[in-house]
Amino acid sequence: MREGRLARSKFYNWPDKLFDLCNILFMIGLVIVTLYPFINMFALSFNNANDSIRGGVYLWPRLWTLDNYKYIFNEASIYYATTISALRTIIGTLVSVFCTAMLAYTVSRQNFVLRKFVTVAFIFTMYFSGGLIPGYLLIKELHLINSFWVYIIPGIIGVFNMIVIRSFIEGLPDGILESAKIDGAGEFTTFMRVVLPLTVPALATVSLFVAVGQWNSWFDVFLYNSSRIELSTLQYELMKILQTSNTAATSSTAADQFASGQSGVTSVTPTSIRATMTIIASVPIIMVYPFLQKYFVKGMTVGGVKG
Q1: What gap in Å lies between CA 266 and CA 22, rounded to an integer?
Q2: Using a CB cutoff of 8 Å and minimum separation of 24, what contacts does 79-84 make?
Q3: What is the pLDDT of residue 128?
Q4: Res 13: pLDDT
Q5: How many CB atoms within 10 Å of residue 17?
Q6: Which residue from 31, 61, 68, 232 could staple onto 46, CB 3.0 to 4.6 Å apart?
Q7: With contact defined as beta carbons under 8 Å apart, do 58 and 40 qualify?
Q8: CATH code for the part of the protein at 76-307
Q9: Average of pLDDT values for 49-72?
Q10: Extents of the domains making up the chain
Q11: What was the pLDDT predicted at 94?
């Protein structure tokens, strides 16, 4: 009889096992599809540029070389541009997350009279903007052109980030905030000492969004600070290097580059430069993400659930 129950158990469990197997195979395929482009960029960045023209470089460099990285880091502007990118990422992330969190806490309070109006006004900006020219004129009137603060002030509030943090705050038990007020804490004290420590998962999630945006941004440099070399960022300098390599590539054919590679002459190609740029720009974010991963997952799941 026991053997019969075991047989029925195995029979009734085979759909679950089949589902688990399909789920595992699907996730493995998803990981491969997700990681392959980055691994391919890694292989191309360390492969000889002239050899890469032949194709066939997928997961591992065929002819190892550091020439692509030497070509980029030989540019003196890369070093101070990296410093500016790091500064704008750190300062911009801290200021934006703090101000966005204060706004999220404000609109999450039921006793705030203009709660709905402020929320709708900010959400409206997600669908409609003033446009490029009015935005440039506004930045000019604020005297932010050729200034480091043009990287910080225009993006100080993120509407989507505000919604994420507000949803997380609304999920907090009301008793915690009420007990703080009973103890005599004002709104700002409650925000600093109670709300911020409890919203770390949401803040870490938003911080990752803002940091990636700040680190990858280059168009604002092109618009507002292109005449100030000392305010250039890493992404903008990499973009200029890529344009230079594209221009140089138009004056020679792939066959000429391959022939020069066979004769021992070192050169780079737009493809190798693009792959190297991808690795250089991605490494800092990849190094930071593992420290925020647990908060990122919790912030995206719990932040949308109201307790």
Answers
A1: 48
A2: 80/230, 80/232, 81/232, 81/233, 81/234, 81/236, 81/237, 82/234, 84/148, 84/230, 84/231, 84/232, 84/233, 84/234
A3: 85
A4: 73
A5: 10
A6: 61
A7: yes
A8: 1.10.3720.10
A9: 85
A10: 76-307
A11: 95
